[in-house]
Amino acid sequence: MRLVLTAIVYSLCGCAWMPFVGNDTDNEEIVEEETSEQILYRRANTSLKTGNYSLGINRLQQLEARFPFGRYAEQGQLELIYAHYMSVDLDSVEASADRFIRLHPQHPNIDYAYYMRGLAAFTGNRSVLDRFFGGEESRRDMSGAQVAFAYFSEFLNRFPDSEYAKDAHQRMIYLRNLLAQAEVDIASYYLSRDAHVAAANRARVVVENYATTPSVPDALAILIESNYKLGLTDAANDSLRVLAINYPNYRAFDESGNLVLEEAIANRDRSWINIMTFGLVDRPNVPPPLQISQPGAGGSTALPSDKRESVTETAPRKPWYRRIFG
Fold first, then answer.
1. Tens place of pLDDT for every residue, the chain, 326 residues?
2. Torsions phi, psi for 245 (to 5 deg)
3. Which of 17, 154, 192, 297 has the most CB atoms around its CB within 10 Å?
4. Which residues fall within 8 angstroms of residue 292, CB to CB, at 6 or more apart?
């Protein structure tokens, strides 16, 4: 009987002990899960602070995959945008920012996602070679600058009081000046190819849409020359008055107040010897400067007809060997 009673007591103790152990195990697993999320986030944050962005990105992605609804999920997604930017993965910056904006439109730090999206497009506007060797930014593809300008514009409209608003505003001014100069460069190219209508249209875009940029005087000069060569003397005189009144110290005005414009030499006027020698040999005939007088009070034309003909005419071009040996 003693053995039987002892066996019954041990069996009862065993039945009572198993659930208790199970509860302890469950509690330990819960504590371990919470701790592992904190540890993973802290490790990712440490990687970003030490500049190991690839490892930080990997750990942030693991954090989001393992704990998509954890306490660090939203903060991890914001830091992932920053990590992609610091690793110069600009496409991933825009994708991560768009995703955060779509998933958390009411987040208190949503302005950061909008700002970083614009900053990524702004940085991507410059190629790797330009960052090292420089170059004329206005002569590159302006699609990236237009996208960045649109992103920053949306950001400022939504968050005018954001801590990033001042920086975004300054970058928009730079982009606006860059886009205006790009239009002037295109207009100058059209002017050198005698495409006067296209040149006038491009110059008019600058005058109408980028009126506060430093490129407006050059755009007005192109508009004057294009209209003048098209025979639109009234339009040329109107643009000339605007240029003289608003920019009296423009570099193309001479001491008498006349607008003197050096005509560009198109590549088609250069021989292959001139091109191969970087312009030292077989120089093409340089056309005379285009001098346009300001109209008087009586509304006279920009130039008399006889003088206009003498300005636009050029001497017949000699063969290259005649220009070298006489």
1. 555 445 444 444 443 333 323 334 344 444 444 458 888 888 988 898 988 999 999 989 998 898 888 888 899 999 999 999 999 999 999 999 999 999 999 999 999 999 999 999 998 876 544 544 445 666 677 888 999 999 999 999 999 999 999 999 999 999 999 999 999 999 999 988 889 999 999 999 999 999 999 999 999 999 998 998 898 888 988 888 899 889 988 888 877 777 877 655 444 455 656 556 655 555 545 445 566 666 553 333 343 333 333 333 333 444 444 444 44
2. -75, -45
3. 192
4. 224, 225, 228, 236, 240, 258, 259, 260, 261, 302, 303
Nearest to 168 by CA among 97, 120, 103, 105: 120
